[in-house]
Write a structure and sequence with these properties.
Pfam families: NusG_II. The chain has helices spanning 9-30, 87-90, and strands spanning 37-42, 45-51, 56-61, 66-72, 75-80, 100-103, 108-113. The chain is an alpha+beta fold. A four-stranded antiparallel sheet has the order 2-1-7-6. The chain has a three-stranded antiparallel sheet with strand order 3-4-5. Strand 1 (37-42) and strand 2 (45-51) form a beta hairpin. The longest helix is centred in the N-terminal third of the chain and has 22 residues, at 9-30. The model has no long low-confidence stretch (mean pLDDT 88).
């Protein structure tokens, strides 16, 4: 506690102000709107637009085979893909605007759209 004696009243004011600004800005910076739809692309072109309020599954043909995409409870995911590494399947459920799963070897992608997209490293 020896180092605590070095702080002056003004230091505590600056620290308090910084903590308050961070606490208030955190939810504002990371909020996003509600997701409305999922856009499925094949070979860079739109294959289907899926309404997230309606549960369904579709099959998207690609160069390697069929990619299966499922919508359930206002979320979407790639259920199966013929690609070797299964990265898009491992993405899991996508629910927030801006989230995307890309099955590069099969040239299929699914992106959630709607409201305000959340900030991510690609937005920077």
């Amino acid at each position: 506690m020896h180092w605590m004696a070095l702080f002056k009243p003004g230091d505590w004011l600056v620290i308090s102000f910084g903590v308050i600004v961070c606490a208030v800005s955190w939810p504002l910076a990371w909020q996003s709107g509600a997701a409305d739809k999922a856009v499925v692309k094949r070979g860079g072109e739109v294959f289907a637009e899926l309404d997230l309020s309606r549960n369904r599954s579709i099959e998207v043909p690609g160069p390697l085979g069929i990619t299966k995409i499922s919508v359930d409870k206002r979320r979407v995911r790639v259920v199966s893909d013929p690609g070797p590494r299964q990265y898009c399947v491992r993405q899991g459920w996508l629910a927030r605007p801006g989230e995307i799963a890309i099955c590069a070897p099969n040239q299929v992608s699914v992106q959630v759209q709607g409201g305000k997209e959340a900030y991510d490293s690609l937005s920077y």
